[in-house]
Amino acid sequence: EGTIRFEDVRFSYDPDRPILKGVSFEVPAGKTVAIVGPSGAGKSTISRLLYRFYDVGEGRVTIDGQDVRDVQQKTLRNAIGMVPQDTVLFNDTIRYNIRYGRWDATDEEIEQAAALAQIDPFIQMLPKGYDTEVGERGLKLSGGEKQRVAIARTILKGPPILILDEATSALDSYTEKEIQDALERVSEGRTTLVIAHRLSTIINADEIIVLSAGEVVERGHHSELLTQG
Ligand code: ADP
Ligand code: ADP
């Protein structure tokens, strides 16, 4: 469940400047597909069309055959978990941040999600002041720790579809590896769209799609693309 299809999708923010010029691909249910390409290629635009921040110009985006335009916004957003590059946290406890959007969750469920994401020691603390002062119960969360909060939130939400949009791009290489491992565990069994500008950051994708200037220029598996350079 959760097959994503882009069918000849065309999109532009400004009428005279096409951003996606006929993009087609499929992410079969439970599989992981990565979109790789240089900055400005249109990768994030693809995730915004799936999440319906914008509607496609021409073509179709479907989930299990249903046009996303026919799915209620709330239903769609419940079905999709998103881990962005920089997670913005609310000035409330980590517990609140994990629970965000799942107000029916029990303490036990929240604690389990926090433990799986390995952020449980911080659960009662405030991320407040991570750029300025560290308050009494405050804590200066690192980039990796903020991603762990996003991961815990996703585990608790439990969506069938996952978008990882440059989720490890802002991290140093050691932290990146740790967060990648955690993301791979979360993506297990979910339909996952990974967005990245470097091929080296993609590990377990079933297919990699190379996007350049709004067009798919290459597709294949990791080893094939690496040997082609
Ligand atoms: P990528 O994720 O591959 O870096 P994006 O999908 O973010 O690329 O952006 C593709 C192009 O669309 C870029 O040239 C960018 O400047 C432009 N763009 C992105 N968002 C907007 C917007 N809200 N309004 C106008 N142009 C945008
Ligand atoms: P967008 O800002 O792109 O419209 P969302 O509103 O879904 O997207 O928010 C993106 C992220 O920012 C989510 O992880 C959400 O929890 C977080 N967020 C949204 N509003 C706030 C806020 N007022 N304070 C802190 N974080 C927020």
From TrEMBL:
Lineage per the UniProt record: Bacteria, Pseudomonadati, Pseudomonadota, Alphaproteobacteria, Hyphomicrobiales
Residue ranges annotated for the ABC transporter domain, each copy included: 4-229
Family indicated by similarity: Belongs to the ABC transporter superfamily.
The protein's name: ABCB family ABC transporter ATP-binding protein/permease
Organism domain of life: Bacteria
Complete-protein stretch covered: 381 to 609 of 665
Protein localization: Cell membrane
Source species: Flaviflagellibacter deserti
